Amino acid sequence: MALWELSSLEKYLGLKKPNKYSTQGDKKVPVLQNNNGPPLVGLVTLACHLVKEAKRLELLGDSAENRAVVQQWLEYRVTKLNNCTKDNIKTILKDLNLYLQDKVYLAENQFTLADILLYYGIQPIIVDLAIQEQEQYVNVTRWFDHIQHYPGIRRHLSPVVVLRNRIYSSRHH
Amino acid sequence: SMALNLTINTSNVPLGALLAAEHVKGSVQLSVEEGKDTRLQVSEYFNDANSISRYLARVAPALGLYGANMMEQTEVDHWLEFSARRLCGQPGLTEALGELDLALSLRTFLVGHALTLADLSVWAALKGHEEWPSQGKSFSHVNRWFSFLSSQVPFTSVGNKYTSKKS
């Protein structure tokens, strides 16, 4: 699953020469052979490497605080989301919904790599939500719809239909 | 194309029109100066803030400030009217904010997936409204949308320059 994400990211970043990745272990952790040193291992390591290669450092956060927030969500993606079971999907959506209540992006007002990788990771969950659940996790849904329309991000992923007017509750509480 | 000239009344700054002007500046020849009355000089002239915004959005269609299609254009018109009638100084702000909050719960921008005149004019109306700062906390979706725009260029510069002048 991680390999298409890395090639989508390469395209978004406008990197001309696509890298060849391999995978290691049962969990198919992505690996990039590096000519100048030891191989680079892991989705987050590789994604950050691509961002630096493309000289798009702002995608890693533009302040010390934002950089820490970006790293936190990248880690969340590979530890929590990648290992999520049917039982804790609801907990993840609930927590994320609360976090996004007052934010447009994960790092508040700045679009970062964390938004891209969390979008790729959570897409299979959002596809399966009923309209009523979309409204239940309204802040996740709004963030998701914004990122899937962000220029150059969605790639081959199918767009999830999101209603932009609420139908289950006319009140917001 | 011909050069446009926008004059703004500094004692009653048309923030929305000024934001529209800042957005189209790179696409059309436009000068902004301060004067007694707000007006956009074309062959005739416009002196209503929403008319000025509409004209500016239409001379720079590539920016998409009037929406991406006819439906979005109608939505933009709705919000221009909403900001002029419901948010500019009239009583009943709380009710209007309730409607705005509901609309923004599933939207990052008011219309479509990018910035339009709707965002500019509603943001400008709230920015200039005396009661908005005290009401902001009760409407979390409006508040998120408002702070997001406030953190972006040119909202930062226009907001700082003209609201500090007013007080």
From TrEMBL, chain A:
It holds the Pfam family Arc1p_N_like. Residues 49-171 form the GST C-terminal domain. Coiled coil: none annotated. One of its GO terms (cellular component) is nucleus. PROSITE patterns: GST_CTER. InterPro entries: AIMP3/p18_C, Arc1-like_N, EEF1E1, Glutathione-S-Trfase_C-like, Glutathione-S-Trfase_C_sf. This is Eukaryotic translation elongation factor 1 epsilon 1.
